[in-house]
Amino acid sequence: MRLDAVADTPPAPAGDDSPASPERVAEVLELIRPMIQADGGDVELIAVGDDGVVQIRLLGACIGCPSAAITLQSGIERNLKAHIPSITAVKAID
Fold it and tell me: Which three-class secondary structure state does DSSP give residue 54?
């Protein structure tokens, strides 16, 4: 699965330290979701903390997939951080 780039929305400008809102995180996840769904998985936004930590739940084929950790870090977290620099981490919960 390639989550290398999400071209539909430009990354945040350098120096943008606006807080991560659940609405903005959801927008970026909507851009990533089709690539995850193409492999039979999905992602659900659970919470966005004041500390910039985003909690998500991986669904479908992502559950138990050996590549889920790579998808989370290299795909989802990298894209969210590129679009919303105030995000500090993305954590999957059960």
Answer: strand
Cα–Cα distance, 68 to 7 (Å, whole number): 22
The pTM of the full predicted model, rounded to 2 decimals, is 0.81
Residues in contact with 69: Cβ distance below 8 Å, sequence separation at least 6, in sequence order: none
The whole-angstrom separation of Cα 36 and Cα 71 is 9
pLDDT tens digits, 34-67: 999 999 999 999 999 999 999 999 999 999 899 9
Q: Do 31 and 6 form a contact (C-beta atoms < 8 A)?
A: yes
Beta-bridge partner residues of 54: 48, 90
DSSP secondary structure code for residue 72 in this structure: I
